[in-house]
Amino acid sequence: MATFKKRQAGYKSKNAGDYFENMLHFFGTCQRIEVVRIPNGCKVVKIRGKLVTIPIKSPFDFIIVKNGIAIFLDCKTVESGNFCYSDLTQHQVNGLFNLERQGITSGYLIYYRNINKIIFYKASVLSSLRPKSSLDERSGLS
After folding, report:
1. How far apart are CA 63 and CA 19, in angstroms?
2. 95 near 129, Cβ under 8 Å?
3. Beta strand pairing status for 69-78 and 62-66?
4. SS3 letters for the chain?
5. Mean pLDDT of the chain
6. 42, 45, 67, 121: which has the fewest Cβ within 10 Å?
7. Is residue 30 a contact partner of residue 24, using CB atoms and an 8 Å limit?
8. Is a pLDDT exceeding 70 seen at residue 2?
9. How far apart are CA 85 and CA 67, in angstroms?
């Protein structure tokens, strides 16, 4: 029973994430903003003498461009009012933070489903988050 509930929660979370990403694409089209989705990739490795393709995660989800200005971001959705440290994907935060240090706007775009609000958090804010803490609205840009 617990496995079924976890699977059902996973489907709900994936559907909410897909909805948010589709909404981002639609908004971009309406505003004449180029929204480029970064696909997950593959890596070829040698295991026991055989070449095997394994999936690898992308460093972030989207590049958004308008009038020569680019923003690199990863999209997240949460049901509750908090986005906690444990919700971060550390390799993404590190990659986005390195881009921000080069002068490129980058971070997480988080959709809070319960309050129907979207907030952008810069990578520097994400990288300063510590275990057992969470982000609040004041530390982001809505």
Report:
1. 18
2. no
3. antiparallel
4. CHHHHHHHHHHHHHHHHHHHHHHHHHHHHHCCCEEEECCCEEEEEEECCEEEEEEECCCCCEEEEECCEEEEEEEEEECCCCEEHHHCCHHHHHHHHHHHHCCCEEEEEEEECCCCEEEEEEHHHHHCCCCCCEECHHHCEC
5. 85
6. 67
7. no
8. no
9. 34
Share of the chain above pLDDT 70, in %: 96
Q: Residue 124 corresponds to which tokens in the numbers above?
A: 């520097």
For residue 26, the Cα-to-chain-centroid distance in whole angstroms is 17
Tell me phi and psi for residue 61, to 5 degrees. -90, -40
How far is Cα 61 from Cα 108, in angstroms, rounded to an integer? 9
Residue pair 120/73 in contact by the 8 Å Cβ criterion: yes
Contact 31, 65 (CB under 8 A): no
Residues 6 or more apart whose CB falls under 8 angstroms from that of 114 comprise 79, 80, 81
> For 77-128, how does the pLDDT look when each residue is reduced to its tens digit (9 = 90+)?
888 777 888 888 888 899 999 999 999 999 999 888 888 888 899 999 988 8
d(CA 39, CA 33): 19
